[in-house]
Amino acid sequence: MASTAAHSISFSLLNSSPSTTTRTAAAVVRLTSSLRPAVRRLGFAAADPTFTRHVLAKIPAASGKAVRGVVSMTKKSVGDLTAADLKGKKVFVRADLNVPLDDSQNITDDTRIRAAVPTIKHLMNSGAKVILSSHLGRPKGVTPKYSLAPLVPRLSELLGIQVVKADDCIGPDVEKLVAELPEGGVLLLENVRFYKEEEKNDPEFAKKLASLADLFVNDAFGTAHRAHASTEGVTKFLKPSVAGFLLQKELDYLVGAVTTPKRPFAAIVGGSKVSSKIGVIESLLEKCDILLLGGGMIFTFYKAQGLSVGSSLVEEDKLDLATTLLAKAKAKGVSLLLPSDVVIADKFAPDANSKIVPASEIPDGWMGLDIGPDSIKNFSDVLDTTQTVIWNGPMGVFEFDKFAVGTEAIAKKLEVLSKKGVTTIIGGGDSVAAVEKVGVAEAMSHISTGGGASLELLEGKELPGVLALDEAEPVPV
Predict the structure, then answer these.
(1) Binding-site residue ranges
(2) In which residues is substrate bound (predicted)?
């Protein structure tokens, strides 16, 4: 069955000598140790330790020279700007503060706010006047429940100052608040999507936003795959236009670490449907040494090989594609592993009856909802051979505790590998929710803040919000 399918695909691991990335990382660790006062001064306690080192390495004032990743999307970063470039300047910062709120307008997860703090703090400490822009939800015109007002207390707490909130994002009242903003101050504009012109990338609306500032910093990776007025349009009127620390880190990991990984490089791809991950799988087959598949998509692969899948989710129109992907992996020498056993249920429900069976023996009327213990062990053993791992998509229906075992086991395994020095990248979406649920998020090398943007970047697509930024000057690494 699945184990047979996996074994039919050649298992080859490519080894290489330690890369420049490893030496650069070691240098950054030493740099961070010697600059603990700078870490506190820049206010990076809200960010994870890896992010702190990443940010410090990009600030000329801290390191003497901006250190760039071995491979990135070669865009200029806010860390490339000098204090003279920023002091007294009005900086339009597009952040992704699209946080979840409960019915009482309380923030239920402040991850995105905390992720924006390092860039804002750096600008504040450089004497800039920060004009902060974001969207929240999908409002249709001015919609009070999507106001950014509930974000002000938490944002003020994290930044250590009272953030001023505007009632609009353009217009005379906003211009007055900008004029009154002191050096190191922060003004939060109202939800930019209250204007339909935002998502239409209307040039006149972009011009009005840009008129508030002297330069632009895009730190909203989650919307970088969209050409909106506040992400792409404003770059036509503001120079320089550069990446914030969070956006640059996303590019360095999702492009740099994946393009020139420490090998062996494994990709773990899960999720319910092959169709939603076609681009990611095809792109990763060009780069990885090992590809582990889980989630509902595996049953399409099983059926394509003539196996019985019972009532499991199958995309009938993707059977030929699954066969093609298996053949492509074999031709490229990529070790593609499917689960050898699965946890099946008699219905799609948290209280369903369940049992573990070989992947080749799913009976009629039963459906696969998780990978089994043998698969967990096989995947873990293979992951022990790796130096870089990227994970996108759960191994099963992890929303149901009974069928979350495989996903949680992968999360815990990546925690162990991270502590051994393996580069671990969580590529957005449900995988992020999984590592946070298990409580191992802080151990990961990088957790992407973008869902759709992460997928498109992994697929090799160009992101409009990134393409519009200024090109970086060549920096020796």
Answers:
(1) 96-98, 112, 135-138, 193, 226, 277, 399, 428-431
(2) 96-98, 135-138
DSSP assignments along 1-46, one per residue: -HHHHHHTS-------PPPHHHHHHHHHHHHHHHTHHHHHHHTGGG
The answer to whether 220 and 231 are in contact (CB under 8 A) is yes
Is 249 considered catalytic here? Answer: no
Is residue 208 annotated as a catalytic residue, yes or no? no
Pairing mode, strands 341-345 and 367-371: antiparallel
Per-residue pLDDT tens digits of the chain, which is 477 residues long: 333 333 333 222 222 333 333 333 333 333 333 333 333 333 333 345 555 555 555 554 444 334 333 334 578 999 999 999 999 999 999 999 999 999 999 999 888 999 999 999 999 999 999 999 999 999 999 999 999 999 999 999 999 999 999 999 999 999 999 999 999 999 999 999 999 999 999 999 999 999 999 999 999 998 888 999 999 999 999 999 999 999 998 888 888 878 889 999 999 999 888 888 888 899 899 999 999 999 999 999 999 999 999 999 999 999 999 999 999 999 999 999 999 999 999 999 999 999 999 999 999 999 999 999 999 999 999 999 999 999 999 999 999 999 999 999 999 999 999 999 999 999 877 888 889 889 999 999 998 887 778 888 887 788 889 999 988 876 554
φ and ψ of 418, to 5 deg: -60, -40
3-state SS record for 85-107 = HHCCCEEEEECCCCCCECCCCCE
Catalytic site includes residue 294:
no
Q: Residue 423: in which H helix or E strand, if any? A: strand 423-426
> Rounded distance, CA 396 to CA 419, Å?
25
Of 112, 129, 165, 413, the active-site residue reads 112
Query: For the chain, what's the residue count?
Result: 477
- Give residue for tokens 């582990």: 292
> Is 429 part of the annotated catalytic residue set?
yes
Q: Are strands 341-345 and 215-218 parallel, antiparallel or unpaired?
A: unpaired
Instruction: Judge contact between 31 and 56, C-beta under 8 A.
Output: yes
d(CA 118, CA 112): 11
Burial of 352 (0-12, 13-18, 19+ CB in 10 A): middle
Of 273, 330, 332, 437, which is the active-site residue? 273
